[in-house]
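REQUEST FORM: STRUCTURE PREDICTION
Request ID: SP-0412
Submitted by: Lab K.M.
Chain count: 1
Length (residues): 76
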Amino acid sequence: MGRRSIQPIALNRKNALFAGHDTGAENWATVASLVETCKLNSIDPQVYLTGTLAAIVNGHKQNRIEDLLPWNYVEK
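STATUS: Completed
RESULT:
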């Protein structure tokens, strides 16, 4: 990995310091991880999060949650 690919991760880590408390930092880390994983898989993070949340709200089966991971995500 080059410096350019690591820099956003380092910035997210610094931003997480201001999350308020441990639970907030954990939530921040989860979202930041999903966003960066989307970028690594050439997926628009906003499209991914919108589609994934819509699928969950519309009853996506919990035992098929792997289908919603960024590297398995198929834009609809």
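NOTES: The chain has a mean pLDDT of 82.
Reviewed by: T.R.
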